[in-house]
Amino acid sequence: MKNKISIIIPVYNTEVYLENCIESLINQAYSNWEAILINDGSTDNSLSIISNYEKQDSRIKSIDLKVNKGVAHARNTGLDVATGEFIYFLDSDDSLDQYALGLLISNITHHEVIFGSFNKQNKKANLTLPVKHRIKYSKSKFRNESVLNRLFRRTLVDELNLRFDEDYRYYSDLTFLLPLLDYFKTVPTITGYIYKKQWRKDPDSPESLTQHDDVAKIKEYVERFHKLTEVYSENPKAIKFLCNQFVSYYCQYVIFVLQEQDIYSEVLEDLSSVVQFIDTHSYSRRISFFIKRELKAIRNKDEKKLRKLLKLHKVLRITSRSLKGRQKLYRTLYNYVFTKLPMQNKTIVFESFLGKNYSDSPKNIYEELINENKDYNYIWVFAKPGKEIPGNAKQVKRLSLAYFYYMARAKYWVSNSRIPKALKKREGNIYLQTWHGTPLKKLVFDMNDVHSANPNYKADFYEQSRRWDYLISANSYSSEIFQRAFKFNNRMFEYGYPRNDILHSDNKTHLMERFKTQLNIPLDKKVILYAPTWRDDEFYKPGQYKFSLRFDLERLQEELGDEYVVLLRTHYFIADHLNTEDFEGFAFNVSKYDDISELYLIADILITDYSSVFFDYANLKRPILFFTYDLEKYRDTLRGFYIDMESELPGPLVFTNDEIIDSIKNIDQVKEQYQAKYDLFYDRFCGWEHGDASKKISGEVFS
């Protein structure tokens, strides 16, 4: 603990991440450090956050530059005041593993510098598993041109006068690192992720430096290249390194910028000057025949030829990727073949819950179109085609070749969940997003932290939702939330949910008898529907979910079995995790029953927790119990709620199976006790529901 580490952290408008960054330092197992936070003219609350931590921990020091002068200046300022025997650079939107500093300081031994490994992660999502760390030794190479996650001895920094060139805004790190190229032959590196690098991909995240103007970045890189090659003109090793770095820069960045943006005339002259230089010097990087041809075209400033070569390069890259798997091939065909075919203006593709079943608002809209005898070709997407559905719709398997073909050619998409982001929406395509419930839990951009299995959830959602032309809302409460949480600004249909039309049918009694008979439920038994939500954090890994049933079926059967049966309806992610064999005749696993609206009709009582099902079920004005055994965790950690669970719900919160049984035995008293709240709830959330939403939407979209 005798060796102090000075951690230099430039800060510019990173209030979203800053607390997480500082907390990761405070939680370090190694405690002999000082953090120098340089506020580089932030216009958000960053300075206030720094000041609060400075008052709490004497190891935290702040410098306020008042105006933004750039990362290089901020880091140099930190170097000027650092008092530690070691120097470490950290970005204010990143964070460290608890043992990061300790691992670095204990393994640097007699070396002058030690490297650590990175883990890219999305906004505050931390899915990093424990990793075994070991030390390996590699030749002195600075491939990523970054000073981050490298521990330097202060004596080395002073001896070589290592500084950042403040003329450069984007590429200043190499001016600090390049003098080290000849200084040592091997560098120890800690394997295993100890530095959590923030990947700012969320649309609501503040923009990072790497997201700035591409032309400016390329021009600065070229300027720096020429300056450094002049400074190191007598150092063949440095020249070779710079040439190799440019080739890597071209392959990993410039190619993609030029393929996506028409900026040839703005950067070709600059790029040509670099290629002319490296053609007269040696470099060790092996490059392909195609890259050599592109660099030659750049050297000759042959824009026409370069355009052709880069277009060919893109085609070859896409073709190569498409041959690596069936899905990649299908996506390539979708984007480059099927979407080039004429659009079929009378074709509609329907999908519900990722093809899991024939249900929800897409089902009701489809059946309305059939009843109206509208002249359309219908395609239904299912995970397992072959379902018995009305009409003459063609059924296709989700993610099959036929799926990509019809998605590319159909003018209309109707879905209640997200369509794969790989399917780019073509011009003229109309996407009706029906959504799948009134929100209780915080949605997308109203969520501060993401605890789901997909750490890129927000970025993916934003990209996918940009394709929605229409969105259906069940009430004004939902409309307000959808506009904000989805960043949705297109047309909102405010008619109620088509899936709830059946709950206002004039034929409810006959339908209830029919559905009970289909499920082999005795007509003289009352029905309890238990429909819990799934928990965002209950997963083993992305795509593999877990579920634990807290509902005591044995007790319920013993106490209520003479009068009631129980229907268990879990989220489709976890439908296969229930086993009701020991409760035959009493408990029915209806998790895979296609349409939950039909289950609402036959249910005398609904028991749920944080699922939006109670908003729909309330249309029937029947009793609802809320089994919220993990209320505090769910409300405060996982998702958060839009309404006050303890004051606004149309039924009691119950926390144990004893309370469930007691409430059911006294259900008439419960209903009377909550009648006033129920009436207010119904007016607020069910007031738009009149049983005609499908008809109204059919008339507006498919006229």
Mind explaining what this structure looks like?
- By secondary structure, this protein is an alpha/beta fold.
- The protein folds into 4 domains: 5-206, Alpha-Beta Complex (Spore Coat Polysaccharide Biosynthesis Protein SpsA, Chain A); 214-324, no CATH class; 343-499, Rossmann fold; 500-685, 3-Layer(aba) Sandwich (Rossmann fold), CATH 3.40.50.12580.
- Helices cover 38% and strands 17% of the residues.
- The strands form 4 sheets. Strands 1, 2, 3, 4, 5, 6, 7, 8 and 9 form a 9-stranded mixed beta sheet that branches. A 7-stranded parallel beta sheet has the order 12-11-10-13-14-15-16, sandwiched between helices.
- Strand 18 (539-541) and strand 19 form a beta hairpin.
- The longest helix is centred in the middle third of the chain and has 25 residues, at 236-260.
- 35% of the residues are buried.
- Mean pLDDT is 88; it is low at 121-130 and 536-546.
